[in-house]
Every structure is written in structure tokens, then in C-alpha cells.
Fold this sequence. Notes:
A: four-stranded antiparallel beta sheet, B: Aminopeptidase, 13 helices, disordered N terminus
Amino acid sequence: xxxxxLTMACVCVTLGCLVSPLLANxxxxxxxxxAALTERVQKLGDxxxxxxRSLGKTLGERDIWLITLGGGDVDQNHAKKPAILIVGxxxxxxxxxAEVALRIAEQLVARAAQDEKxxxxxxxxxxxxIPSPTPDATEKCFLPPFRAPQGNNRPTDDxxxxxxxxxxxxxxxQDGWITMLRVEDVAGEYIPLPADERVMVKAEVARQxxxxxxxxxxxxxxxxxxAWNEDGSGGVDFNKSFTFDYPTFAPHAGPHQVSEIETxxxxxxxxxxxxxxxxxxxxxxxxxxxxxKADAGKEKAKIKTTIFTNDVMxxxxxxxxxxxxxxxxxxxxxxPTGGSxxxxxxxxxxxxxxxxxxxxxxxxxxxxxxxxxxxxPEDGADDATQPGDEKLAEKKPExxxxxxxxxxxxxxxxxxxxxxxxxxxxxxxxxxxxxxPGQKVxxxxxxxxFRLNPPAAELDGIVEKQLDFLTQAAAKWPRLSVDKLKxxxxxxxxxxxxxxxxxxxxxPTMSEMGEVNDQMYPLWLEWTVPEKTVWLQGVARTRLNxxxxxxxxxxxxxxxxxxxxxxxxxxxxxxxxxxxxxxxAVAIPAAMP
Amino acid sequence: MLNRSRCFFTLLLALVVLNAPAxxxxxxxxxxxxKKPVYQPQGAPADPRVDVRWNMFHDYAQSSELLKKLAAxxxxxxxxxxxxxxxxxxxxxxxxxxxxxxxxxxxxxxxxIDAAIHANEIQATEVALYTAWYLCEMQERSDVVKQLLAExxxxxxxxxxxxxxxxxxxxxxxxxxxxxGQRPIDDDKDGLVDEDKPNxxxxxxxxxxxxxxxxxGKYKPHPDYPEWMIRVKDGEQGExxxxxxxxNDDDGDGEVNEDGDGYYDPNRDWPADWQPSYVQGGAYRYxxxxxxxxxxxxxxxxxxNIAGVVSYHNxxxxxxxxxxxxxxxxxxxxxxxxxxLGKQGEKLLPGYRYLVIAQDLYEVYGGSTEWTxxxxxxxxxxxxxxxxxxxxxxxxxxxxFGGEETQxxxxxxxxxxxxxxxxxxxxxPQYGKIEVGGLKKNWLRQPPSFLLEEECHRNMAFTLYFxxxxxxxxxxxxxxxxxxxxxxxxxxxxxxxxxxPTHTQVDLQxxxxxxxxxxxxxxxxxxLAGLTSRxxxxxxxxxxxxxxxxxxxxxxxxxxxxxTRWIVAGKGPYQVEVQSVKGGNARQVSE
Lengths: 593, 591
């Protein structure tokens, strides 16, 4: 551990020298940018348990790193063992995904020599870890002015006007962050939230509110099309690019599905590795804390859009395992976006989809005083946020309001920032804006990253829980045995072979989705027989259907005629790339008189 | 040997042609060669500069050579490029044909022709090659072709699956194979690839059928056409049992032909409505996961001037438009365009029917022309070549290939029984003594030699009609009205003289192609305001606040006019220029 910290410190120092003219992102202190990540990934390659290679170079010429971990000769054996694929940082702003995926690899390597649980994990499984699948997009997080990246380095025409990147955001107040603009305007739809005027919400007629602000991203209308910052050439978003529920024509979804070097590299890697049976994705679109629900009514549809009931029962137990280990409190629920990698992993790739958010802004209770204020906001509570023009201020109606829960997450985040001394919000401050001469324009709002990525000090604790989950989830793997093995001589060299393949593990031999979409490789049972054996019933290589977990079985019989002299025994082997094979033999009894 | 020497000879010829132009021209100037006059038929020239036979099929090498020869012989008309190499290392040719001396090829409205993405559909390539050849040869002989090439660019990709083309030509196959590409695929996911293909048991280059004598069998030869196996009536004694496609159990697993050429369908690989193989059989990993297709998609994306697409397939004689899915529909404005084109196609191509893929055929997710229409906004048709109408010039209702009786009649009297391999006994390792025979690979989907040239010409003629209906913009008038104090009102009528709009409905819906622009320029004048209107009186004009000198026009509908008006301080002359990505460029100067 200490050596790791030391390395980290060294990296930081080196980086500091390299990028000293640049401002480091305060929200990502202690997180690795691409250069630092590359250095740490390559260092892993020194270990006997790890092999490191690049899946390709992106448009920005950054490597898409793959770390392969396993016991024994990892280079020779990785494809022969069942595998879990871990993919971090599919959403660029969610840098914690890359950091945790990488730290999982680092911890496994560091402990592999001593820790028995990890030894047994690496003996039975291969781990493929792609910490930073869209490195160009992620790198934008580290370059000022800081804003949540929309995609990779491909020039895109986000507003479809025939020109790429003609109206990007600008850091108008020069604070190093791209936040928001609020423009006082009678046609505006927004108001400051009465309970906390830093937070902007849409005015609601039902509350007798009237909008008086326009809300825009920080910048100017460079191309004079009356849209602000609508084409910053944001690139293609890795997590909107995959084939399931692909949002055609949506901004940042790319020209078509899987259009990018990195999306193709990751998808092809997946298809080339049939030994993968579970895909663990670090993503805000969690499904271990809020598991996907089955909908039996939709299961018969030609195109599957809900998880199968037969998969939910297993997936729910894995999710429960995750919750028991991580003990989440108040985890937010985020619906997956169209084209997401996490959904693709299940619906089109057929693997167990484990999607985890890793961290969220913890709930901070409002103090009594603030609660009162929420009930009855005072005038002039906060100078910076108070609209200057009294005439525009709405008279607060006397009658009782419907419960105002608007902006709850934002208000909680502000309380969390205050309680932890985090500078995560830019107070609204007036500026001169060339597009709005004579109008009051203010810059302010939430800084990106702070609500999605924990302070680096919390990372070790998060990683520890993920390691626990990893070793325990891997122990749920399908495990084959063979029962009722029999060879009966029927006379004249004719033999009936029978056996039952049993799955003693928890998980089925594949997900039902993997069977339906035919992306999982099935179990094959293969007999080794002497030449000139005649198959009377059945064939030498038998494809077995999915076997359920917790004692599911598959009974098989064959009728063969063996040549003279018959062998003493016949050998068989049953397995799949993602299910460890078992081998056995059955003695051939002497022919009946 | 014969093949090789012919190749060598044609190569020599190509070299001579390559070196010819300058030399030949100089000669011609000195003393015109007294040529014996040629009696020219209508259609193709009798004395072409590049000699080709159009009653035969060209393999990959022959097709490549022809393309190179066209580019060498007609350097101002044809330019050849390769988009890249196929999986098997063959070139993905695209021939650009236009009048290179007249405007920039990439700025003219362009037509894309591709062929034989399903490589077994071999005459598709011939139609594309014929089109290329004909345009080159006829540019100086036909005013219509000359003008077409002055106004338009053609991008012709005659072989989208070149590896499988050679596979069809030179390996044993049926008329239906290979539809897939040549990447190895483990269809049954047993860790082995293509381990049990059909086998050419009698070594004749055709994959036919197997039958075995069996009094319990349900088949017997047809009394008039003994090659044809027909089912016996209930209770009637049969003579044969059919054993399926010619082949044996290569991998000794007890099953025959269970893992042939890895199956993926290159025409289920395009982005529009793509679904994986459990929904759409033949889909590969993800859209454009087949490299050859990705080359094509990249080319199309880089050429937004393409305003018309025809993709040649076989068979059945059909002009197909989308939608490919039953619950989808096209906008009415676009459907009207397709209907005009389709009806004209039915006239020019007797026996062909204009149909909708999902309604009249079957549902297709990820077809190429659905993508070029829905996501690139291009009017696109899939042509299924070869109508069974051609057997006897009668409407045939026996599916895509005509009724079996018609086929037999045609085989017997027109093909002189050449279309079938006679049943012949072979020893089969699993089944024992069996017979092999049946339909050859070179017809049914493909026309016989004497109908091939007609197929090529008629389809080209329809495609040229289609190409001519792509948008073509012009400035039809400019009127200048003085408003006093050196201020003028300049009004221009901008016309699209063809059927297809500069932006299809689907294009407008998704803002695929940037708007057309109409720009006013004058040396000493300043544009004060700019307006556009759909009618000449500007009763409810659209006013463009920013950059009024460059007016953006969302669309210029087919056979229609858009009016633009500027209020200008300063005298003319004024130049008005219209620039349309899909409709071309035109300009005019006021008097």
C-alpha cells in the first residue's frame, strides 16, 4: 500500500512538472489523467499475474488499455478460463469508474501473492479490465476550462447545420469552469427556487409562478443562430453508441452505432472472448443497487427489451450480495440511456450485466433553521442570488403551496458541499454579455464532476468493497459435475451411454438472454471413441442447452456400436469457454454372453 | 492455360491502350485514317474503344481489368479508386464517371450504384459494369449522355463482396451461394470453424442434390422432365428419397453439412433499424462490422452530393423501396417521389414490379438502401434483377424464380437441357450408393447469355432516368427594382428543374443535409435585409436576420421555385449564386 501511495506521489510530481502551466481539475485531485493512468497500467505489466496491451489508439492517439489478470501463465491461459470483464469510466465525467477499475487491478496484483481469496479468484478466473475505454473523452475532464465532456475527439456537427464545432462554450468569468448563465428576461421560463435561490427551476403555473430567467450554458452565440453553445463539436459519447436502444440522430450518438475506434475495439474484444460471462461496468446507470425488473408480458416480444424472469432471480441475488457488502444508503436511481454499454452487455452480448455507480452525494439533513426557511423563504437571504430588480420579484402568494420538493438533489448537494468544505458551486455573479446588451446576465451554478466523483480519500474504501464483491461474485460461478454415469453393454458391441450433467454452482451455465440472442457459447459434451465407432443414436459432440443454477441438470443418452476389441473405457469432456470443463471416463463392461 | 494466355493477351492490349492516346491523337491530326464505316445498331456501339462482351459474366480479375481499362481509355470521364482491400485482399473498386472537364465532380449531384453485395447474385456486377462502360463509350456519341455527365457524377461500385464473387465462380456452389462473405464463422459455436461444408461429390463445380433409390421414398422423376423430382400423390408408390444438399460428414460428428461457410449477410449489416442475429438472421456483430461495408459507408458519408442510390441484387424482377419494417412508414411527399420512379421503372423494365420491402416481401432490419434513405436522406432503390417474366414474356406468379414447370420448359427448349446436372451414381461415405444431380449454379437467378445484355441495358436505362431526376438547381431570373436613394430590391427565382427535391422529407425531418444557400454579391453594394418566399409576391416571407446576403433555404422542392429577395444599398450588377449540396450549384448575374 505504502509503495503504491509513493508511486502515486511520484506520478503526481512528474505530472506537476509536465503540466505545470495547466490548471489541474480541483474536483479530480488524486485521480489519474491519461498519462498517469498509462504509467500505472504499464507498471502492472511487470507482475506475473498481469498482462497489459492496448486495444488500439483513439483519434487523439491515446491507447485503450486492457489489463488481463490471472493466475499461472496469464498470457497462455487467459482464454481458457471463464472471465469477468470490468469496464470503467464509460461515462466520461464519471472518472471514478476509471480510477476504481484501475485500483482493483492494482490491488489484485499487489495482494495476489499473499491473499488466498484473491489467489483462488485468479486461479479460477481471468479478469479483463479496461479502465478507460474512451480515453479522449476522459482526458477532457482534466483540461481547463473544466466541463463535463460530451464525447471523444471526433469532430461532430451537434446541431446538424453542416458545420462542426462552430459554437462551443466559453469560460466568460474566467474561473476555469464552464457553468451556467442566467439571463433576466420576461420570456424566460426559470425562477430561483424559493427554498434555495441558488437553485434554478422551471416556473410552474400550478404554483402561480411566472418565469423570469433564461438558463443557458456558459458562453456566447458564436454563430448567431439564437442557440447558445449548441455545437461545441462535443464528439461521440461511448455510452450512447452501442446497438441496444440506439438513439439514432441524437447529439453525441455518432453517425451510427459502434462508429468509433474505441467502441469497435471494445465490442470486438468482447465478441472475440467467448470466455467472458459477466460484464461489470462502472457507470452512473446502476443496476446492482436498483436491479432491473422483469416484465413477463414483454418476454415474448420479438425484440427483447426487459430482463428475463429466469435471469432476474440470479441477478437479484448478485445484486443483494453487492448491497450486503457495500451497504448503500440513499443511492439514487438512474435510468440507462439509449445506446448504453451496460444494457448492450446484457441484451446484445448476452452476459450478466453488473452495473455499479460506486459513489453518490451522501444525504445531508437540512438544519432546523434551513428547514424553516424552506417553508417560508425570507427576502434578501443571499445577496449574490437575489434578483436585483424588485419590480420583477413575484409577490409570494399567501395560500398553502403544494409540497415543494423541487431541486432536492441540488439542495442536498449544496448542503454536502457546505458540510465538507467543497467548493462545488459558483455563486451567481453578474457579467457583461455581448449577446444581451442592457440585460442582467449572471454566471454561476454547479461545477461539474463534484456530484459524480468522490474525494480521492474515499477511493480506498470503495475499492475494498469492490474487491470483496468480486471474490464473492466469482464464487457464484457455474460448476459442473457428472452424475449417473453409466455404460451398458447390449451385446454385439452395442453400448448405451448415459449420464447427467449437474450444475452445482449458483449461476446457470449462461444467462437466458445469452441463450436467446445466441451470443453465449453453449456447453459441448464430447466423447473420445475409437475409430470405426458407429453412432446409432446421438453424435460424438453433443450441444447441451442452458443448465439452471443450484443443481440444474441435463440428462443425456447415446447408443453406439464399438469396434472389436472394445476399449476398456471411454473418455468424455463437458464444458464451455465460460464454464470450467469436467472430464471423466466410463468403464465399458464386457459384452453380454 | 487457356485462361492464362488470354489474360496475358488482354494485359498486353491494356498496355497498348494505356500508351495509345497521345500517339494516336498525333497520328489522327496528320492523316485521318480511312476507317471502314460501321453500321451502328441502336443501343451500344458496334466499334467501342474498349471491347467487351456483354453476354458473359466477368470474374473479379476480369472486372478489375475492365475498370482499369475504362479509366485508362477515358481519363477525362472515368477515374478508378479502391476504397481498401477486402477480407481476402481484393480491391473494393469505385469508378467515378463524370465529365471531369466540366465542374468539380464532388460538387455535382451524384448517383451511387452498387452491386452484388450478395456475391452469388452475379449479374448485378455486369449491370454496373455495363453502365460504366456505356457512359464512357457514349459520352461523345450521345448528346443525352454528354449532358448527363456534364451535370452529374456517377459513383459505381460493381463488386461489394469481391471475395465471394470468386468463390461463386471458382468453387462448387449453387445459384444461391455464397450469399455470405468469406470470414470464418463458428456457426454452431463449438470452437471449430466451417468444419462441415457441402461437398462437390461428383466434382462438376456445382453443388446439387442427393437422392437415394428407396421404394418407401416420396419422390419420383417427372414424366416429361425426368431430371425434375416431384412428390408422389398420397398412396402412390415413390422411387426416391431426397437427401438434401450434396455433401458428407466432414468432421465425423454424425451430421452432414452442419457447419458450412460462416453465415453472415452483408446486407443486414447497415445501421438503419439494425438488430442482432436473434432478431435479424445474418446480422454480424454490429452495424458495419463487415469491413467492406464500412469502406462503402465512409465513402457515402464523405460524399453528401449523392442524391440517388440504386443497389443491384437478384432475383425476381423487383424495384424495391422501404420501409423494411411493417410498423414503419415513409412520409407522403417522399412516397410520391418513389411512386413516380417506380411506375416509370415498371414501364422500362417489363416484368418488373415496384414493391415495398416490408409489405410485399419480408421484414429486413439493417438493409443498405434503408440506411441510405432513412439516415442519409437519399432516394434509394434496391433492384432485384432477372424477372421470371423473361422465360416466356408472360407474367409469372411462381415466386422469384418462376414456376418449376416453366423452368423445365425453358431448360428443355431454350437451354437445350444445359441447366441441369443429370443424376449420376456416386458412392457416399455415410449413405452408400446414392445419386447426385440437379440444378446448376449458373442460372435461375442469373439470365442466360442471350438475355444478359438486355438486362444490363434496360436496367441502366432506368437508372439513368432516375439519375436525371435528381435535383438540379438554377437561377431562373433576377429582377431589380429601384426603391430610391440608391436602394434596390433584388429578387431571384431559384428553380429545381427535376423531380427530386434538394432535401427529401426524411432529410428535412432529421436535418441531415445542410440547407441550400442563395448568395447575393455585388462589388459596391451592401445587403440590408434578406427574405425568402414560396410565392413571388412575398405575402408571408421568412426574414433572415443574420448574414442576409447568404440566405439559407431549407429545401427547393422538385419542379418548383423558391424566391429570394434582398434589399440592397448600392448599384449592381448583382450576382446570385445558389449552392445546394444535393442539387448542384448555379449562378447568374443581373443586367
